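Before a colleague's protein record goes any further, I have to sign it off. I want your independent view on whether this chain really folds as the tokens say. The record follows directly below this note.
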Amino acid sequence: MASVASGDHTSRVTSLHENEITVDEALVRSLLRAQCPQWAELPLRTTGAGTDNTMYRLGDDLLVRLPRKPDGGPSLRKEQQWLPRLAPLLPRRVPEPVHAGTPTDAYPVPWAVHRWIEGEDVGPDTVRDWAAFGTDLAEFVRELHRADLMGATREDGLSWYRGGTLAACDEWVGPGFDACRAVEGLDLDIDTLERLWREALALPDPAGPHVWLHGDLRPANLLARDGRLHAVIDFGALSIGFPDAEHAPVWDLPPEARHAYRDALSLDTPTWLRARAWAIAVAVAGIPYYWDTFPAFAAECRGRLEAILS
């Protein structure tokens, strides 16, 4: 769903997880022939892979998304169920599901075909004004959080840890600091990061209403066009809950974007400090897990922590 210039264009994708399902072009082509024969002969090429999905561009107008792990199907089903209802309420383009693929013996997980969204990776070469970009992102988050829940609750498969409280995650975040200390060459002030996490744990829990959450607004899930925010993609973490963690990925953006985002949403200090703690939590978990298998993602987590420390 990003521009075709991004991502890995090999026919196989490096494994990141012990239980990862092997995917290659031949497998994708077989799924299409069996379930979408009208598209089976269109050009097919890899267009990147995240931590949860492998993606292939199909022709000029379509994108195939395949979960990397056996438990990845529910994330795609959430997108297929809720994105058509949320899309009309949102100020930027979001993925449009066009086919819900079913499991097979060769690929025992649901998969999906979405409409391709043309856009560019978010970065210094594609964003003209970072403050305006932060305001654009804040507008999207505001409208998503205002969207009617349409009767949905966290019990409807829409519960994710990032919509809960910080305290509920301390059991795994705490060991993450020690795991980071053991990473050779990381060279970060882990003690200060752990102190910031502990200080946020002492804050009152969020008390506002539950809202719709994208769940993972890192730059890799944002597309730029003409220098501005054009689309928000990958709603696999779509959930309902408290909004604090939704703001955490703004530490992946330059300070101008981050400050404009906070100002546009009028986020108070406790919310901002909890959001920062969520940013720390996700990064300290990601670095030791992906340090050897996904260096680009580990570097993204490291950059987030460096921004917090600075």
Observations:
- The CA atoms of residues 92 and 231 lie 5 Å apart.
